[in-house]
Amino acid sequence: MPSSFCTSMTLGVDTHADVHVAAALDQLGRRLGTLAVPSAPDGYARLDSWAASMGMIDQVGLEGTGC
User: Smallest Cα–Cα separation from 22: which of 4, 3, 45, 5?
Assistant: First the structure.
């Protein structure tokens, strides 16, 4: 968990076949952290819990969704 709980954050996720990589930014654009998880249900759950621990998710951006 980051040292200071932010009021809102932006979550960015780059999707791949085997792994998804996420980055969380605070409301000023400062990086709160990054996380790589397997592209599987337990990885998605871990990413969700990790993101929720950073604060209120204000925006989400997904890269590489194939559409």
Answer: 45
3-state secondary structure of 54: helix
SS3 44: helix
**Residues with Cβ within 8 Å of residue 27, at least 6 apart in sequence:** 6, 7, 8, 9, 58
Rounded Cα distance between 19 and 37, Å, is 6
Task: Sketch out the chain's domains with CATH numbers.
Answer: 6-63 (3.30.420.40)
Give residue for tokens 């960015």.
12
Instruction: Kindly report, residue by residue over 16-45, the tens digit of the pLDDT.
Output: 999 999 999 998 999 999 999 999 999 999
**What tokens appear for 5 in the block?**
């709980």
